[in-house]
Design a protein that fits this description.
Layout lengths: L1 H13 L5 H11 L2 H19 L4 H26 L1 H4 L2 H4 L2 E2 L1 H16 L4 H21 L5 H10 L13 E2 L2 H23 L3 H29 L3 H6 L10 H21 L6 H12 L1 H19 L7 H21 L14
Amino acid sequence: MFFVLLSHFSDHYFALNGATRLHKISYIIGMLASPTFMIISGTMLGFLYQTRRQKFGPIKNRLMERGFFFLVIGHLLTSLALTGADGSFTRALAYVFITDTIGVCLIMGPAIIGRTSPVLRIFLGLLALFISWAGCVLWIPHELYESTVKEILVGSLAQGNALALNYVFPVLPWFGVYLASTYIGERIGKLASENRFQKIACFLLRLGAGCIATAVIVFAAARAASSSSWCHVLASPYQKSPPGPVYLLFYGGLGLLILYFIFRHESSGRIKFYLNITCLLGQTSFFVFMLQYYVYGLFFHMCKLQYTAFWPIYFFASVVAILLCARVWRSKGLNRYLSFRINLS
């Protein structure tokens, strides 16, 4: 979530003030957010299923209800925050946010996990990524509605005015990441039930380091073996929409190393302050995600803050304000309103 805040602060402060170099650096750092967010989300589903299998029915219903809320009310509220920056509510609606894709994941993931093995879900996740890239390359839409459907499902390599929507976090490839990540959660859950917490840390370290090493090898091999533009796109560490394999492996690996750091040091008490803050962000993540759009997409846009060398003060103040709001939100138990009450039994 910190990387989300940095990325969106950069978009609505550095970019609008022509601070190109800082915007680029912040963008590269902020790219860690999406793979980590989706991996943690899938991991949580796998963990809940492994550790609460006998009571998973009610959990599944709550997750699916929340997914529908994200897709409907959440999308409308987040779009409203971007009305000022985009000029109209209609234009602001032409986004597919990460929360929309997570909404789909929360509906589909719990329905699938009880019917499939971890190995099958990894296979299905990889298949979803392959189909996404095949569709991205081979599917050539001729109508606007086809382009819209394509961008929502698999993404697009088009730029600027060639896009049917303003921004898309494509559903199919990221659902593949989410589904495959449920294996991580099941593995952690099994080890936790056996009190083998050091094994959890070792598992995350090996997995994270292995992903990064694989990304470096694939990147180097692709650059050396081919001059094809498609090969370079697939091997780019910055290819986010749709997510390329090197981007997913490298930034996803870094996200797993963050999890390793937490598991390795949480019992020592040395990172208690950090854990308190990240726990707050995790427990109020959807509220914080919506709120930061109002802070950066609406408030910053209205204030038209000029660039200054003291910009960290702006960023720090915005983060503190968001954290304070999140603390109030959690203390009042307002997460209970972020869900529909529907019978999915």
